[in-house]
Amino acid sequence: LAGNEGVAEVAQSQEAEWVISAIVGGAGLLPTLAAIRAGKQIALANKEPMVMAGALMQAEAKKHHVRIFPIDSEHSAIFQSLEGHRREDVKRIILTASGGPLWGFSREQLQDVSPERALQHPNWKMGSKITIDSATLMNKGLEVVEARWLFDITAERIRVVVHPQSILHSAVEFVDGSIVGQMGLPDMRLPIHYALFHPQRVYSERVPRLDLTTLSQLTFEEPDTARRGRVASVL
Question: Which residues have a Cβ under 8 Å from the Cβ of 165 and sit 6 or more positions away?
């Protein structure tokens, strides 16, 4: 099978209970919608379908009694932090960003940055496009839109915070001032594992463990949109 129709046919396969949507970019929209309409549970790794058509995706999921489980590390962390809490008690979502491979560079240093340097992400091994988008913070903009539709919350209640260590993957602030977050090593196996076994938490030796005693510091900063804009224009 090949092409859009072939991928959509696979996504609707009778043998499948789950569909992991991980096709890069807008090409993932139609097969993901096909899977939803076929009643498959969705584990969403590709953010573009939700960015492009979040209202439609959620409406179709509700119509066909399908749950969409995010397996982006940040959105999985938000999903986990919301479990067991009333949505009306949520004040805002705290969406963390690593800052990318150029975080901390001065404006002068950014004058001569190369694409090769921008591809050297300190925490994650990702494809070229998403790594460059991380360097410019463009990827975080897409994630804000995705979070808006995944969790039915306005963009004004989503705060982006730069966390270079990528240990706190995101958090939820509640109206009483409590902040509930999810921590772990920068490894995608944990959010995928959580989604596939939800609502159970199943032991696995393949999921890496975080040892808090090995952490020297966790830091959080406001994003510098002026400098990130400079990176985008250079690259």
Answer: 123, 215, 217, 218, 219
Q: Name the token pair of 75.
A: 């959105």
Cα dihedral sign, 135-141-142-146: positive
DSSP state of 177: S
Q: Give the chain's residues under pLDDT 50.
A: 234-235
Our CA angle for 217, 219, 224, nearest 5°, is 155
**What would the DSSP string read from start to end of 104-154?**
T--TTGGGG--HHHHT--SS----HHHHHHHHHTHHHHHHHHHHHHHTT--
User: H or E stretch including 91?
Assistant: strand 90-97
Please name the helix (run of DSSP H) or strand (run of DSSP E) that holds residue 189, with its range, or none.
Answer: helix 189-197
- Kindly report, residue by residue over 95-153, the tens digit of the pLDDT: 999 988 888 888 888 888 888 888 888 888 888 888 888 888 888 999 999 999 999 99
Q: Given CA atoms 201, 17, 10, 68 in this order, what sign does their dihedral have?
A: negative
Tokens standing for residue 98: 């690593």
Cα 189 to Cα 194: distance, rounded to the nearest angstrom:
9
* CB-based contacts of 228, cutoff 8 Å, min separation 6: 136, 137
